[in-house]
Amino acid sequence: MTDAAELLGRTKELLAAHPPATTERTDFLKARFDAGLAWVHYPKGLGGLDAPRSLQAVVDAELTAADAPDNDPRRIGIGLGMAAPTILKYGSEEVKQRFLGPLWVGEEVWCQLFSEPGAGSDLAALGTRAVRDGDEWVVNGQKVWTSSAHVARWAILIARTDPELPKHRGITYFICDMTDPGVEVRPLRQITGEAEFNEVFLTDVRIPDAHRLGEVGDGWKVAQTTLMNERVSIGGSRIPREGGMIGPIATTWRERPELRTHDLHQRLLTLWVEAEVARLAGERLRQQLVAGQPGPEGSGMKLAFARLNQEISGLEVELRGAEGLLYDDWTMRRPELVDFVGRDAGYRYLRSKGNSIEGGTSEVLLNIVAERVLGLPSEPRNDKDVAWKDLTR
After folding, report:
1. pTM for the whole thing?
2. d(Cα 274, Cα 281) in Å, to the nearest integer?
């Protein structure tokens, strides 16, 4: 089995053969992937070495010390956190070889075509249709709240392939080429003034059957892999102490003593402790991932992430007083990445409102935690055995 010493040696060999100071960024990242040092727990030949996931830290620390370039994970987060683990589990060997390298290097950005205007929290009610035509599928429908669709080359897509079956059983999972004819991306301007989200219209889009992940009709099961990984990537990302939303308000508190009151102090202390507990819980969750796929615990982390972000950003606006109500720029932008913390206090306050909706609404996640973590009885669902075509819409 690969151990820490071997990984350290391989990393030093990579740095010697491709010095970061003189090697073009993409060339270095490709060499890192080929050396199996991209995600060490992935299989050999797919950017990994079949090593324990926990040993990734050995590689990352050595590369950081050498000032080696990273793959800009915030820009390609959907590909790294959602598409890649799903492709690894359900993709054919050809699909894995084709997509995982460019995905990890950042040559190809991914987006997620799941939610629809009539199927958000109740995602299984989706109506986008995929009809088999020989070795291809013809897809028609509309998706919404699609982060980074305007810069994405590929998308993970779920569509209904059998309306005669109950809603969870007639869905199939595909990889969609966002540059294909029939794919139209329109911006959705948010409360922040930006349009990081989009709506996507699919008109007679042809997807080869080779780009199907999992069996026909098993799309809901495949999608669960994506969704569980999504919640871990949102709520359990690795951050330093006072990283994330708590960082800016802690800095303001230290640098602006004239803003302090006893009440604000007590509330800030409470939120600081809760943020640190959430950070450590996220670290524990990542350690549990070493043993296998993420479970429903990721939903709990994402719940905490949304609540804390909203409470902390609200306190920051209150701490800053009148200046907290100012907003720096309402200019329409279409950013290439999702930024929860950047810009100013007003931006953080407004952007955090979406945290309890995106990546699974807090209401849905509370159900998941209640049923799958606490073991409480599930809510009555009268439509589980009703054909999708017969559902009231």
Report:
1. 0.90
2. 10
First to last CA, the chain: 54
Determine the Cα–Cα distance for residues 289 and 300; give it in Å rounded to an integer: 15
The Cα 310–Cα 308 span in angstroms is: 5
User: How far apart are alpha carbons 159 and 154 in whole angstroms?
Assistant: 15
In this structure, what DSSP letter does residue 376 have?
A: P
List the beta strands (DSSP E) in 226-280: none
The torsion angles phi and psi of 126, rounded to 5 degrees, stand at: -55, 150
Which residues have a catalytic role annotated? 230
| Average pLDDT rounded to a whole number, residues 96-109 | 98
pLDDT class of 291 with cuts at 50, 70, 90: low
For residue 12, what is the enclosing H or E element? helix 4-17
- Alpha-carbon distance 192 to 296, whole Å? 31
Q: Give the phi and the psi of residue 158 in degrees, each rounded to 5.
A: -115, 140
Specify whether the CB–CB gap between 334 and 195 falls below 8 A. yes
255: confidence class by pLDDT, cuts 50, 70, 90: very high
Residue 240 in tokens: 């330093």
Residues 6+ apart with CB under 8 A from 191: 350, 353
Cα–Cα dist 178/191, whole Å: 26
Q: Which residues pair with 329 in a beta bridge?
A: none
CA distances from 36 to 61, 231, 356 (A): 16, 26, 36
Give me the percent of the chain exceeding a pLDDT of 90: 74
Task: Map tokens 């950042």 to a residue.
Answer: 106
CA dist., res. 159 & res. 219, Å (int): 8
Cβ atoms of residues 252 and 315 within 8 Å: no
Please classify residue 223 by burial: count the beta carbons closer than 10 Å to its beta carbon, then call 0-12 exposed, 13-18 middle and 19+ buried: buried
- The burial class, CB within 10 Å (0-12 / 13-18 / 19+), for 181 is exposed
Q: Classify residue 296 as exposed, middle or buried by CB count within 10 Å of its CB (0-12, 13-18, 19+).
A: middle
